[in-house]
Amino acid sequence: MLSNEQLERYSRHIILKEVGAKGQKKLLNAKVLIIGAGGLGAPAAMYLAAAGVGTIGIADADEVDLSNLQRQIIHSTQDVGKAKVQSAKETMEAINPDVKVITYRTFVDSESIMDLIKDYDFIIDGTDNFPAKFLINDACVMAKKPFSHAGIIRFKGQLMTYVPGEGPCYRCVFKNPPPKDAVPTCKQAGVIGAMGGVIGSLQAMEAVKYILGVGDLLTGYLLTYDALKMEFRKIKLPEHTEDCAVCGDHPTITELIDYEQTECEEI
Amino acid sequence: MKITVAGKVKEYEDGLNITQLIEKENVETPEYVTVSVNDEFVERVDFEKALKDGDEVEFLYFMGGGR
């Protein structure tokens, strides 16, 4: 049963035919894990908390740095030096005390990730490096967990959604991480602050739709956004996934891989 | 021939292959781009095969940032 306060708080959800009281209860019972409390994770965490996603895990080993605040809107000036997960938790709980926020002050690796994701219904990849992105993909494929992948750099962003058995995974498309420093991921490349807001919010939207079971997810599609051209493109991805090294019919990757981390810390 | 590159129809000379298209389109980090033609991934070893009139080509780029 929703309380009177919840009926009021979620009234703009409940009035939607796609949500209703039933959908709101689904959200309240759902568990979403956000890996990375930064440019993407910040808006995703805030919208999911506001939406009343009942349990939200957030994983990040870093502390808040002054250079984060241009885009990581979950953290404030007074949080500089604080653990990002703690700062994020405080903001999320201030937005919505209905939400149970579980913090993991760690970088994910092959040792920790399976245990981390196992209790969650949906995972949001808000990391900034290819080793982590491939690790999250492979772990989610192996554990049969849906997840939202995204990347942002400069004035561009993109995302795709993986649901087990319903289309290509990240590795189907990108095969292997590029060599270290071959593709810019790092702080020298820069990113426009609102890009995290656009793409991270879209990741939250995918999580909400998945939980509610409504609409079409970005499974089998890569959505790209070019802010300078103000152009969104929903690119159909090949359906052929049989040969994929991790999600294909005869996977060659059966254990998680810790690729070499790039040196950069923040974009 | 007409080929569609990233959603835009373009006129290119017959016999153009993917390697040449990557050059003409100034694709960023060409060594690491994923290419699909008509909704099929194209392996790097097949980048020298000629494209055909009406082909739809997409370039999919690594994008690593996020935190």
UniProtKB/TrEMBL annotation, chain A:
Keywords for the protein's UniProt record, in alphabetical order: ATP-binding, Nucleotide-binding, Transferase
Record keyword Methyltransferase present: no
Domain THIF-type NAD/FAD binding fold: 10-245
Pfam family, one: ThiF
Molecular-function GO terms, alphabetical: ATP binding; nucleotidyltransferase activity; sulfotransferase activity; thiosulfate-cyanide sulfurtransferase activity; ubiquitin-like modifier activating enzyme activity
InterPro entries: ThiF/MoeB/HesA, ThiF_NAD_FAD-bd, Ubiquitin-activating_enz
GO CC terms: cytosol
Positions of transmembrane segments: none
Superkingdom: Bacteria
NCBIfam families associated with the record: PRK05690.1
Protein name (Swiss-Prot/TrEMBL): ThiF family protein
Organism: Anaerobutyricum hallii DSM 3353
From TrEMBL, chain B:
Superkingdom of the organism of origin: Bacteria
Positions in coiled-coil regions: none
Name of the protein this chain belongs to: Bifunctional sulfur carrier protein/thiazole synthase protein
Organism of provenance: Anaerobutyricum hallii
